[in-house]
Specification:
Strands 3-2-1-4-5-7-6-8 form an 8-stranded mixed beta sheet. The protein has a single domain, classed as Rossmann fold (3-Layer(aba) Sandwich). With about 280 residues, it is an alpha/beta fold. α7 runs antiparallel to α11 and α9 runs antiparallel to α11. The longest helix is centred in the middle third of the chain and has 15 residues. It is globular.
């Protein structure tokens, strides 16, 4: 089974950055976009779950995905490491049956077994030596792990200027990863069967102020010094032209797989599903 091995520096950076979002829970809630209904429905359909199913969401943030899971009759538990994020999620989710807990997945000691474990743009913050193994242990035989990501694709000319800012302020010299760090591990894991993968693109027209908020809730920005945050914000504000609207394509991706105890029934060929916008 492929497991990503962290260096001490990588582990330290991950553990430091993953707690920074709680400082900007309000801005995160106001500007971060949700997840396409089509992908969430695909998760529910492929996992073949219905009312009464035990579902665990890892890294619920302020509830961008939780709102889509709520109201389906699930026995839903949502966890996040940030207290302010969980407080916002509670206010955003109109489902009295949903339970929230402030904790990391590594420290989660809740119930189970679960029929579905889902995590949206959060699984990369989990210790790679723990994430897949603990998920498989908490799932019932044949239960599913579903991992989602989402990100923004900006017009090419704007993105060129934004990328220059990110590279300069983050002092990054290497290439940015095109795929989430957990994807290869999930595909190769002996703990899970064949992956089902889906991509989705949504065209949006967002106020420049919303785009600015999204960029200011990224972990890289939050790890800048106060002076660099102020300078970055000033330069990005000028680049975005306050009062304007930005054409953005929200690109979301899903990879999900059942525990390997069911994989023999499903065959060994990887399945790939591509949804249209």
């Amino acid at each position: 089974m492929a497991v990503t091995v962290e260096t001490p520096d990588q582990r330290g950076a991950r553990e430091l950055r993953r707690v920074l979002f709680d400082e900007v829970a309000g801005l995160y809630d106001a500007t971060r976009q949700g997840y396409p209904r089509e992908l969430v429905d695909a998760v529910v359909d492929d996992a073949a779950i219905g009312p009464g199913a035990a579902v665990l969401e890892i890294g619920c943030g302020t509830g961008q995905l939780t709102r889509q899971l709520a109201g389906r009759g699930f026995d839903l538990t949502a966890i996040d490491i940030g207290a302010a994020m969980v407080e916002a999620a509670r206010g955003n989710v109109a489902d009295e049956a949903a339970r929230f807990e402030v904790c990391s997945f590594e420290d989660f000691a809740g119930g189970g077994p679960f029929d579905l474990i889902v995590s949206a743009t959060a699984f990369h913050w989990i210790d790679p030596g723990v994430g897949l193994a603990k998920a498989a242990r908490l799932l019932r035989p044949g239960g599913w792990l579903a991992l989602l990501t989402t990100g923004e694709r900006y017009p090419e000319q704007l993105w060129g200027g934004m990328r220059e800012l990110w590279v300069r302020y983050s002092r990054q010299t290497g290439e940015w990863a095109d795929q989430p760090s957990w994807l290869a591990a999930l595909r190769d894991s002996e703990l899970f069967g064949a992956t089902v993968e889906a991509g989705h693109a949504t065209a949006l027209r967002l106020p420049a102020e919303t785009v600015l908020g999204v960029e200011r809730t990224r972990a890289t920005f939050l790890s800048f010094t106060e002076q660099d945050q102020a300078d970055f914000t000033r330069e990005l504000t000028a680049l975005l032209e306050p009062g304007s609207h930005i054409d953005v394509v929200q690109e979301s991706f899903l990879a999900m797989a059942p525990t390997s105890r069911r994989s023999d029934e499903q065959g060994s060929d990887e399945q790939r599903l591509h949804l249209t916008p």
